[in-house]
Design brief:
about 50% helix, mainly alpha
Length: about 280
């Protein structure tokens, strides 16, 4: 175990999300799978600890090895309350390497309303990346998203917003009727993805819908997945101390970055008082 640990430790800090090294040329193999999983689960998940990058290297190795034995152990980390940004950005890539064998576990997480909203949304992004790495899985994965939208309720509104955003990125225009129905049922958190007209444009369908949906002055920009994760990491309810228009508002809890700023400037929070947080 120590030899493998030292080998990973010597690799140092990781490169950014889209610039992974080729671990297979470093002679990692399937024989290392069990030890790699143990290193990840043994607590090396602190941003302030050099050991953290041992875990990051380990799950990247497991992904490139397509070690499907690691699916369930990695999925167990989805339930961690304080998700690390490296984990959030890397897991979709890792699960993309695992491909179709990871779908059942990801589906179970996505559909489980007892799971945290962030974990379920991460599962959804992992499913999208399985499509990106395994194009033959597109129809199966999109049907999975469609089924989720059909079964979702208002309690799932944040996850529904994430799934709609992913379907839009995939340009899954055959899903637009199911998306429309989700808006009609009022189960979409429009503070994340805007109204249906905004969604139609994101899907590449230019004409505005005639369905009467309440306008949202802050819904003209369809957010990226990264922005949605920023939203999901914020608390939903916010209380504020008093402030003038020229003073940054101090938020005792949190406000969504794309929500209207409580100082009443007319700007989004992230472009106003959020800059001072």
């Amino acid at each position: 175990m120590q030899t493998l640990y030292n080998k990973l430790l010597e690799l140092g800090e990781c490169d950014v999300r889209d610039n992974w090294r080729d671990y297979l040329v470093l002679n990692f193999s399937e024989a290392d799978t069990a030890e790699l999983i143990t290193l990840i689960l043994s607590g090396h998940l602190s941003n302030n600890d050099a050991d953290f990058f041992v875990a990051v290297h380990a799950w990247r190795v497991l992904g490139q090895l397509q070690a499907i034995e690691a699916i369930e152990p990695l999925m167990s980390l989805f339930a961690i309350d304080d998700h690390n940004d490296w984990f959030l950005s890397d897991m979709p890539i890792v699960m993309g390497y695992f491909g179709i064998p990871a779908l059942e576990s990801l589906k179970a997480c996505l559909f489980d309303n007892k799971q945290a909203e962030l974990a379920r949304s991460l599962a959804a992004e992992c499913i999208e990346n399985i499509i990106n790495k395994n194009p033959d899985s597109r129809l199966v994965c999109i049907e999975l998203f469609n089924t989720f939208l059909e079964q979702a309720s208002v309690e799932d509104s944040g996850v529904v917003a994430m799934v709609i955003s992913l379907l839009a990125e995939l340009k899954a225009i055959d899903s637009i009727d199911i998306v429309r129905e989700a808006y009609q049922r009022n189960i979409v958190d429009t503070s994340f993805v805007g109204n249906f007209e905004t969604a139609e444009i994101a899907f590449g369908l230019g004409e505005a819908s005639e369905i009467p949906i309440e306008e949202n002055d802050f819904s003209s920009e369809f957010p990226s997945i990264a922005e949605l994760f920023e939203e999901l990491k914020e608390d939903d309810e916010t209380t504020f101390t008093g402030a003038t228009l020229n003073e940054p508002v101090i938020n005792n809890n949190k406000v969504g970055r794309n929500q209207p700023c409580p100082c009443q400037s007319g700007k989004k929070y992230k472009k106003c008082c959020g800059n001072f947080s």
